[in-house]
Amino acid sequence: MPRLSVWIIRTALLYLGVGFTLGAMILFQKGVPYAGGVWRLLPMHVEFLLIGWTLQLAKGVGFWILPRFIAGAPRGDERLVWLAYALLNAGVLSAALGQWLRAPTIIPLLGRAAEVLAAATFAFHAWPRIKPHGK
Amino acid sequence: MKALRLLLALGLIPLAAGLVVPTYHDAVMTHWPARATTQAQLRAGEFPFLHPGASCGQPLAGNPNFGVFFPDTLLLFVLPLPVAFGVRFALPFVLGFVGARRWARAEGARAEAAETAAIAFVFSGVFVSAWRFFNSGLALALAPWVLAGLVKVFRRVEAADTRGSRRAVAELGLWGGLELLAGEPVVALRPGSSAGWLVAASAILQMLAGWAFVANTWGRVKER
């Protein structure tokens, strides 16, 4: 597994653990109420598990297993994926923390924009790798 | 105590034998006709989907208030309607008494204390008020069984008794299922609200499962 995939997948695993913890805090509140404010963690729980874990895991695995090039760098320009990795995590944290801390709307909005940009950057990198075997 | 139990049981005989029929409110206006329709349809070999005599046709099995799926519906095949209907009213008293006793015992009360709790429960204002209704009386009578099951689950889990825990969970499932089939969702939710700790416990287990997966996978995600 390439170093970049290790970074992406391990980051996704951290989101999984934290996302599950936030979900458990909310579920605990449903069973035994202890702090109504815990419901404010819901958007962060969704963001961490949907984007931080699921999408990020797909990206990490995708970068690792998509067909490689015969000539040149086997996985193409890795800098694009590093950029997508940075953008996605900046986006997830801005959107999640921005909503939790009730930051100005522009913060979560910028986060969303970073997530879209991350997806586009990764797609730009992966596009040429979607090809028949041996080409 | 035995004499008192016998006295209470004797008091239920006219009801269970169909010698008296509850006629209060819903009992005679709603549930007696619905039960008669259910019996006629079942004996004709049909599934009681529709209650044709109510409001130009109403769902019968589809309306949980009629309790069609509660096991005592089977009595309609073999018993006359007044008897089956009376049993439906006698049954909650017996279930309420035994269930409250069982719950008290599960909580650690001595036999005499549990017996007193059972008598207090079936003669409490809440139970007597609910008992006159076809569905809520039965649902309330089953609530102590659900709570007793819940207490047993916690006790067995605390004692790390795997086999006993499974049996207790199965018992809780059985009484919880019957509680829902009794046909009164509001009452059914009351013991359910006490199951909040079960929800909380499952939250912790899910979180631990998540972190266990992370810990297990972390080392396997490595450069090669």
Walk me through this protein's architecture:
The complex is a heterodimer of chains A (135) and B (224). Chain A has helices at residues 3-31, 42-65, 78-100, 106-126. With 135 residues, chain A is an all-alpha fold. Chain A has one domain (3-129). Chain A starts with a helix and ends in a 9-residue tail after the last helix. In chain B, α1 (2-16) runs antiparallel to α4 (81-106), α4 (81-106) runs parallel beside α7 and α7 runs parallel beside α9 (185-194). Chain B has one domain (2-204). Chain B is flat, with a radius of gyration of 22 Å. Chain B has a two-stranded antiparallel ribbon with strand order 1-2. In chain B, a hairpin with a 6-residue loop joins β1 and β2 (58-59). Chain B is built from ten helices and two strands; from the N terminus they run ααββαααααααα. The longest helix of chain B has 26 residues, at 81-106. With 224 residues, chain B is mostly helical. In chain B, 71% of the residues lie in helices and 2% in strands. Classes of the chains: A mainly alpha (135), B mainly alpha (224). Chain A binds chain B through residues 1-3, 5-6, 9-10, 13-14, 16-17, 19-21, 23-28, 30-32, and chain B through 195-204, 206-207, 209-211, 213-214, 217-218, 221-224.
Question: What keyword list fits this structure?
Answer:
heterodimer; A: 135 residues; mainly alpha; 4 helices; B: 224 residues; two-stranded antiparallel ribbon; 10 helices; 71% helix
Low-pLDDT segments, ≥5 res of chain A: none
Q: Write the element-wise H/E pattern of chain B from the N-terminal end onward.
A: HHEEHHHHHHHH
**Strand numbers in spatial order across the main sheet of chain B:** 1-2
Mean pLDDT of chain A: 93
- Derived from helix and strand composition plus strand pairing, the structural class of chain B reads mainly alpha
**What does the largest sheet of chain B look like?**
2 strands, antiparallel
The DSSP helix count of chain B reads 10
